[in-house]
Amino acid sequence: MPETPTATVRGPIRRPAPLRQAVYEALTEMIINGSLKPGQHLVEAELAESLGVSRQPIREALQRLQTAGWVDLRPAQGAFVHSPTTEECAQLLSVRALLETHSAHGAAQHATPHDVARLWELQQTGLTALAAGDARAIVEANAALHTHITHLSRNAVLAELIPQVDRRVRWYYMPIAKPRGKDAWSEHARIIEAIADRDADRAEELMRRHTQNTTDFYCKQIAAVAVHSA
Amino acid sequence: MPETPTATVRGPIRRPAPLRQAVYEALTEMIINGSLKPGQHLVEAELAESLGVSRQPIREALQRLQTAGWVDLRPAQGAFVHSPTTEECAQLLSVRALLETHSAHGAAQHATPHDVARLWELQQTGLTALAAGDARAIVEANAALHTHITHLSRNAVLAELIPQVDRRVRWYYMPIAKPRGKDAWSEHARIIEAIADRDADRAEELMRRHTQNTTDFYCKQIAAVAVHSA
DNA sequence: ATGGAGAATACTGTATGCAATCATCCCTCG
DNA sequence: CGAGGGATGATTGCATACAGTATTCTCCAT
């Protein structure tokens, strides 16, 4: 059977690796792309069978998914896909703005020419995806760029915390990736320039405005959708 | 055998409750109070026996301990108590400063008179502990106060993220709690006043300076210890 | 004596089985 | 006809057993 109708079915995970990690990635993927819908009850046995593993790796993956905010784990009831609210999303974006701004400051202080070159590569990847109009690729490139800036800040705590926030932002960001893309990537370019100049304060300020623009754009988009659906 | 000499031995966990939670709390306690030393290899079977449970709850607790930053979990090798570095501590404090500052701003916007009254209660608890010279109680009161400010900000994402950073700061904070206490708690009082006045900008600025003072104090203390031990 | 190969050991990773708990549905009683 | 209580099925929580892998110790060769 090449594909069954139910969207949650998946082929077995590649064996030679920590299964819990593979399961974790598979489940996040399924949540992001909508195979697992918000509020849905995740039954361990079902997931285990569809992924071709036992319940144990599933349980461990679910625990990590909870701390990452993907699922809510209610004792003696099991896991439920997290239902995001617009309020929570605004909070996520505001915290992200804070952390990324701090991160940009540090990146500008520590970046080497080699690091900057890598940033320009990622920027190019993003522009290509933007030209192709591939929302999925745009979001991915965006995440890759921001992640790399985070690492350049040489702050392990930040690098640990930001992904927790950022991946969830990615989820919400998908629908607005294309319309927001053009401005976003030109802002990226200016941020990279500031980092290349080792101008920490300018990089910080540009990142602050960049994340603020994204937040504003998202809120407007939400409002528009709300009106449209009314 | 009522007690074995090894410091890691503990009585069984109270049964009627999620065991993984109880194990998690027991292990954090042991790490904080030094029963489990930094770098130490945590063997699942040993912990399981000493806590009177099977390996399963231990494993789940260790996973959570990893995401909280208490242990490092190396694949196929097991769990090791995290060894903090002064560099990492500085990063933790800087991130904490960022988050707490943002939190203070939100708290001043949303606080009700009842909330403010509660803050003054916590402040009083801290002053009492300070007068008694009980470092443990000081740290606890400090954490309680900051936690409550976080909740007042009405930002669920912040409230979720800050404890992850804050608990680890608490760990490092213990040795400097007493000498830092006097200034810290008078700064707290001014922050509470700003929150009571609903002056978000002032609260934010006061919190920024407060966390900055704490960071500076910590760094000086570390330097002093380094000189002393040299 | 020292370096390396191989085997023994110990530990983690995974699977399976059992008991406790929660949700649901049906039956009975008011 | 509606509400409450109990039985049944499903699902989680925990424990045990097995397999794979990294580490360490020993023994042999150089």
UniProtKB/TrEMBL annotation, chains A, B:
GO terms for molecular function: DNA binding; DNA-binding transcription factor activity. CDD domains: WHTH_GntR (cd07377). Coiled coil: none annotated. It comes from the Bacteria. Keywords: DNA-binding, Transcription, Transcription regulation. Residues 17-84 form the HTH gntR-type domain. Gene3D superfamilies: GntR ligand-binding domain-like, Winged helix-like DNA-binding domain superfamily/Winged helix DNA-binding domain. PROSITE patterns: HTH_GNTR. This is GntR family transcriptional regulator. It comes from Streptomyces acidicola.
